[in-house]
DNA sequence: GGAAATACTCTATAAAGTAGAATAATTCAT
DNA sequence: ATGAATTATTCTACTTTATAGAGTATTTCC
């Protein structure tokens, strides 16, 4: 068994959500906005590159002529393997939370 | 922000689920049965001890007279801090998966 | 060509994940 | 009381992942 880490799942979902705007700086911003998790400026590329290496993401440099200043973006897209991993991760997550003993459910639902 | 890793969340939930039978070997077995994730015999204690150190779990040795062979169990129970962390983790998880673009939802729901 | 803007690469360090051999604590038979 | 069988944990070395931030690259505009 080889389940996605939370980081991996979070980043794959961020890429999905950002669609054509999924590049490093945006992904970093998106993740922070959504979960509060912060990365240093360059720190986001470490796990992203790992996901590419593992075949969950693919990446290519955006076209130069974008009519704006600055270095080209490196865009990320999720692969079919990545989508499958997300489905699997979700399903495992449900299993983890399923059928907890009733007293525990109570403690988790309300603030006890 | 300091969210639980998937390992941490999984182990806290396993402890909750096992209630009075939450000790190393059982937790290891429970996790494997539920998620397919395997730990080596001793490997389960590394993250468990970390959770104790962080205050999410507490632990104490089970009573000697249990009328069975073998070394005493080291039982784990979740703390109120641990429960709060679980609630937080769940809520963050929902946020991660919320409001994905419709085409992505389709790809994730069916096997495409 | 130089400044401003935008975004990425690289690398060192800390933390977490992983495996498995070794050891400990108990009961039972003798 | 001693040794075998049983049950469970401790220890630790190694690999992988997380994290921060300085440095660098690419582009446009003047």
Brief summary:
In chain A, helix 1 packs across helix 2.
CATH superfamily of chain A: Winged helix-like DNA-binding domain superfamily/Winged helix DNA-binding domain
CATH class category name of chain A: Mainly Alpha
What percentage of amino acids of chain A are in beta strands? 5-15%
- What's the total helix number of chain A? 5
According to DSSP, the number of beta strands of chain A is 2
As a percent range, the share of helical residues of chain A equals: 40-55%
The coarse overall form of chain A would be elongated
The radius of gyration of chain A is: 17 Å
Overview of the molecule:
- The structure is a homodimer of 112-residue chains.
- Chain A has 5 helices and 2 strands.
- Chain A has a two-stranded antiparallel ribbon.
- With 112 residues, chain A is mainly alpha-helical.
- The first copy, chain A, has one domain (6-109): Winged helix-like DNA-binding domain superfamily/Winged helix DNA-binding domain (Arc Repressor Mutant, subunit A), CATH 1.10.10.10.
- The radius of gyration of chain A is 17 Å and the shape is elongated.
- In chain A, helix 1 (6-18) crosses helix 2.
- The mean pLDDT of chain A is 93.
- Helices cover 54% and strands 9% of the residues of chain A.
- The interface between A and B is medium-sized, with 35 and 35 residues.
- Chain A binds a DNA duplex (30 and 30 nucleotides) through helix 3.
